[in-house]
């Protein structure tokens, strides 16, 4: 039986130019018209697509045996029955991308390097103008771009595609890439990019592209008005959830307004100043991470937003806004001739230990320039104080950059100690040496810098400081015994318990993924540092019962009566380093108030900061009496 007589296909009205050999068979009545047309679609030299083997090019056929040979992507020189090939393949136009992969693969590989955007355009066009990410990957990976190189290639190509504005490139893989109509103007493409962005982050990027090519929008009033309306709508909807991105959009819109003279916004649309006023409680957190140029434009809007209060508002942001914001605020205040205001704010914040880590980093880095008037040993004490507070606080560390600066900047320690007296230098060295913040290696390195800058601090490390009563820490015998008890509990109870926890956690296996083991090891480091700190403190303490304290001036072991300028009376008891009971106004001589009072006589005036309100007040010493236990 003639193999061709076995082929039966449904009727198709599509007109196909038949192959000459097939046309003879149809004229002879050996095969129907529709079979001849389908057969002509897979004639030698034609292209087809197989579901499993990919695209292919027909090499040859044999009507006598009913066989056809096709070179597929995934199966070379595959021999099939004609009937099977007609049923299991689909025809491809010669200019279809899949056909080009068979016919001109080397050229496509070159195109992937020289013009990847054009390569993607051809692929998307062959798919009807739209394609999913996974489809695109199937067309390119291995056959055109090696799988190992694909991610890097695609990241670069995706960026170039967006910059070309020929495509809508979504941020989500589940959404299709769309080839835009070539009749769209550049202005229409830019606006379409903004409109098609699904989230505020995408809209911010689209607006950045618009501002880079803003000249093409000049004269396009309809597109511009539509764009400003869309920006306002996006900002209104996103203000409560993504305030930072809304601020970026408004800054970008205002930049566009400055460059396009004929563009104006209506009175009902959001202004940057209005948003700052409405969201003043959330501004600081929203500014973190924004580009420096964007932050600068926002700070320049503070006078419009807050009127006469703008300086206080910008200084309240300064301490917490992050490294970029700190630098930009400092530059802006300098430009406004408000450098003195900033320095006074820094001086008070450093003294009261309120300055944030990024602001302290800025002060240290600018110590030879604008921050020189406020940079001294108090800055160093503030740094150590903040590092220790951050270490014991819950939550993630905020002071990593500050700690890294202290350890990496080779001249910072010597600059901090440059104007300190001998006692101040020794106290700073002791505090640094006892700090649990640093690893042993970092502590040794830092102390070496301290000793190099101020050799008299050598005793802090060698232990000679114990013999110098005037430099020893003083505390009551009761407080010393309490500390010894805490150390004993640490050594005999907490540390052994931690060792057991480590042993149990190690038995769970897979130490890289073992959370319990990691937590126990972290606690081991904390306990070890605490033990070192407590032993060091106890080795450098001098016990006292405060009997016989001299009362000609304020000494350790005296009760001080004070009267303020407004008639307010206060009384403080000045005792040892570990004897503070703030709620009873019993204070260590090492506290801020203790240091301010020591050595003062009756009739002397002092400026003290209130423990609760943080406000400063001027007081006169009225009485000094000996402490009675």
UniProtKB/TrEMBL annotation:
<protein>
    <submittedName>
        <fullName>GreA/GreB family elongation factor</fullName>
    </submittedName>
</protein>
<keyword id="KW-0804">Transcription</keyword>
<keyword id="KW-0805">Transcription regulation</keyword>
<dbReference type="Pfam" id="PF03449">
    <property type="entry name" value="GreA_GreB_N"/>
</dbReference>
<dbReference type="GO" id="GO:0032784">
    <property type="term" value="P:regulation of DNA-templated transcription elongation"/>
</dbReference>
<feature type="domain" description="Transcription elongation factor GreA/GreB N-terminal">
    <location>
        <begin position="480"/>
        <end position="541"/>
    </location>
</feature>
<dbReference type="InterPro" id="IPR001437">
    <property type="entry name" value="Tscrpt_elong_fac_GreA/B_C"/>
</dbReference>
<dbReference type="InterPro" id="IPR036953">
    <property type="entry name" value="GreA/GreB_C_sf"/>
</dbReference>
<dbReference type="GO" id="GO:0006354">
    <property type="term" value="P:DNA-templated transcription elongation"/>
</dbReference>
<dbReference type="InterPro" id="IPR036805">
    <property type="entry name" value="Tscrpt_elong_fac_GreA/B_N_sf"/>
</dbReference>
<dbReference type="InterPro" id="IPR022691">
    <property type="entry name" value="Tscrpt_elong_fac_GreA/B_N"/>
</dbReference>
<keyword id="KW-0251">Elongation factor</keyword>
<dbReference type="Pfam" id="PF01272">
    <property type="entry name" value="GreA_GreB"/>
</dbReference>
<feature type="domain" description="Transcription elongation factor GreA/GreB C-terminal">
    <location>
        <begin position="550"/>
        <end position="612"/>
    </location>
</feature>
<dbReference type="GO" id="GO:0003746">
    <property type="term" value="F:translation elongation factor activity"/>
</dbReference>
<dbReference type="GO" id="GO:0003677">
    <property type="term" value="F:DNA binding"/>
</dbReference>
<dbReference type="GO" id="GO:0070063">
    <property type="term" value="F:RNA polymerase binding"/>
</dbReference>
<keyword id="KW-0648">Protein biosynthesis</keyword>
<dbReference type="InterPro" id="IPR023459">
    <property type="entry name" value="Tscrpt_elong_fac_GreA/B_fam"/>
</dbReference>
């Amino acid at each position: 039986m003639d193999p061709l007589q076995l082929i039966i296909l449904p009727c198709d009205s599509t007109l196909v130019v038949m192959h000459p050999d097939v046309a003879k068979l149809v004229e002879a009545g050996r095969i129907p018209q529709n079979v001849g047309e389908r057969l002509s679609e897979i004639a030698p030299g034609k292209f087809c697509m197989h579901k499993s083997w990919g695209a292919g090019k027909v090499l040859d056929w044999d009507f006598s045996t009913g066989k056809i040979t096709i070179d597929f992507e995934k199966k070379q020189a595959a021999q099939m029955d004609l009937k099977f090939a007609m049923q299991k393949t689909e025809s491809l136009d010669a200019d279809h991308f899949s056909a080009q992969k068979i016919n001109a693969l080397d050229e496509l590989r070159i195109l992937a390097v020289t013009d990847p955007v054009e390569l993607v355009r051809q692929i998307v066009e062959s798919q009807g103008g739209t394609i999913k990410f996974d489809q695109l990957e199937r067309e390119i990976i291995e056959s055109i771009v090696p799988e190992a190189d694909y991610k890097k290639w695609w990241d670069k190509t995706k960026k170039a595609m967006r910059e070309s504005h020929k495509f809508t490139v979504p941020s989500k893989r589940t959404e299709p890439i769309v080839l835009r109509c070539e009749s769209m103007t550049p202005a229409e493409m830019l606006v379409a990019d903004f409109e098609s962005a699904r989230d505020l982050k995408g809209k911010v990027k689209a607006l950045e592209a618009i501002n880079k090519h803003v000249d093409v929008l000049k004269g396009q009033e309809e597109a511009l008005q539509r764009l400003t309306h869309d920006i306002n709508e996006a900002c209104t909807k996103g203000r409560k959830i993504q305030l930072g991105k809304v601020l970026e959009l408004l800054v970008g819109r205002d930049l566009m307004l400055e460059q396009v003279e004929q563009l104006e916004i209506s009175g009902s649309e959001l202004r940057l100043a209005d948003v700052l006023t409405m969201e003043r409680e959330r501004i600081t957190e929203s500014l973190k991470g924004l580009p420096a140029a964007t932050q600068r434009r926002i700070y320049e809007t503070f006078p419009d937003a807050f009127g006469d209060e703008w300086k206080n508002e910008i200084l309240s942001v300064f301490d917490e806004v992050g490294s970029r914001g700190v630098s930009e605020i400092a530059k802006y205040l300098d430009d406004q001739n408000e450098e003195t205001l900033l320095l006074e704010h820094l001086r008070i914040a450093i003294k009261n230990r309120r300055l944030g880590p990024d602001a302290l980093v800025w002060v240290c880095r600018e110590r030879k320039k604008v921050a020189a008037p406020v940079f001294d040993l108090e800055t160093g004490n503030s740094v150590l104080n903040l590092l220790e507070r951050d270490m014991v606080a819950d939550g993630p560390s905020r002071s990593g950059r500050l700690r890294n600066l202290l350890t990496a900047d080779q001249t910072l320690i010597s600059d901090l100690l440059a104007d300190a007296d001998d006692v101040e230098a020794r106290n700073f060295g002791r505090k640094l040496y006892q700090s649990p913040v640093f690893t042993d290696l970092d502590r040794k390195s830092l102390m070496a810098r301290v000793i190099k800058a101020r050799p008299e601090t050598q005793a802090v490390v060698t232990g000679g400081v114990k013999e110098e009563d005037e430099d020893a820490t003083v505390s009551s015998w009761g407080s010393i015994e309490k500390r010894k008890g805490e150390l004993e509990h640490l050594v005999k109870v907490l540390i052994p318990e931690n060792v057991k926890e480590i042993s149990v956690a190690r038995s769970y296996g897979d130490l890289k993924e073992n959370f319990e083991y990691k937590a126990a090891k972290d606690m081991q480091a904390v306990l070890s540092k605490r033990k070192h700190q407590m032993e060091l403190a106890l080795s450098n303490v001098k016990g006292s019962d405060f009997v016989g304290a001299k009362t000609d001036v304020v000494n350790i072991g005296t009760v001080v009566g004070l009267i303020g300028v407004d008639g307010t009376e206060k009384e403080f008891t000045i005792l040892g380093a570990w004897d503070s009971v703030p709620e009873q106004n019993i204070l260590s001589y090492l506290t801020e108030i203790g240091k301010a009072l020591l050595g003062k006589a009756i009739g002397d005036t002092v400026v003290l900061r209130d423990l609760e309100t943080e406000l400063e007040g001027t007081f006169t010493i009225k009485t000094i009496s000996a402490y009675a236990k």
